[in-house]
């Protein structure tokens, strides 16, 4: 005979039980992190969606275009490490404010660039804030969340990326539909000022979790601590995992719009429609992956979606000419798999480190992965001139293989309480 479920068990299984379990302070922290990450995605996609227009305006090669994303990602690695260390010193909320304001200011500055070199510098500076926001926001929310709900809660924060991505595509479709592309790409960057409004709300309503505030007051540890004996192995393998997964993701994020426009010959509105299928898959994938990471564990979920993402890349870029309906259909599973793999990242990385260096460890490993993973979009850009974007995109599958192999050096953390 089965054991009757307790009221507590039933409560935990209700829809959005994870959100109610956060409490008022935790829900405000969630809102701040969700908004920050969504607008982070919006500002990031201002570049990939505008690459065709920017390349035409400045007369860029594929390699030069790819370098814009590479500069963003490398700088984000630096920014993430700095923001994580800053969050362990001055607090999660204050560090979150600094990162959101930084990426907003320099996204707008990109729209003022008069030459390629200036745009490259502004984009790199934008990357510093872009790299720091997720690491700080994810730790802020993780420290309000119980082990039972952490996977789903952090996956919900990750789903904000799909929301920001979708908003960027809507604005892109409108702006490029109404304006000449010589002006439209600048207007896209100007709309990146939106996150500045979020700063005011965060400053008024968001506070650090009590445990993190107590730990910060008691002791302050430098970045070097995550490389000491006992943590070095974790830091190395977590960075490699993040490198592979993000190398694959940002290869797709950077080059799929160009693939649809150049290799497939789609107009702006058509490109927006095909990307919308990926976004729908991405949002569903984030939430589904969050449930799976709590059921199956962090490592299994990441490994499964690494394999599926690699397969989706190869399938998507080998759809025959004229089979546009199949390409549209495949957009959903592509977006689903490449996003679901991130659902366990926030909880997994937070659980790998103790409170005193949690933001430092998470900020460094996640964004070291961004910086190193940036080699893949640059490689695709360099090869695209001779292989075509579709052919070069296959290298994204290699990145996912690296991420899956790195899991062999990490422990499973499902159910681990944060201490």
UniProtKB/TrEMBL annotation:
It holds the Pfam family MFS_1. SUPFAM superfamilies: MFS general substrate transporter. It is a multi-pass membrane protein. Residues 29-414 form the Major facilitator superfamily (MFS) profile domain. Keywords: Membrane, Transmembrane, Transmembrane helix. The chain crosses the membrane at residues 42-60, 66-87, 94-114, 120-142, 154-177, 183-202, 230-253, 265-289, 301-319, 325-352, 364-384, 390-410. This is MFS transporter. It comes from Streptomyces cacaoi.
